[in-house]
Write a structure and sequence with these properties.
Layout lengths: L3 E2 L5 E4 L4 E5 L1 H9 L3 E6 L3 E8 L2 E5 L5 E4 L2
Parallel strand pairs: 1-4, 3-7
Antiparallel strand pairs: 2-3, 4-5, 5-6, 6-7
Amino acid sequence: MENFISSEHIVIVRDGEAYRLLHGHLRLANVLRGADKVLVEVRGEGKIVVMKTRDGLFAGPNGRCLPLRTA
């Protein structure tokens, strides 16, 4: 995957059965403007894929997708 965002630019944490975007909203939106998927490093989880779909944003490692909440 060509699009990668390091943990210093974006902060995503696990929140129960979802992920929550705490920092880097604009950075993530700019990267997803040109791609449907991006690889993000999440502390404690490793690298996860964030996907843009018509139903919203989803994230997860190894193809396991959970909702990504931005608010």
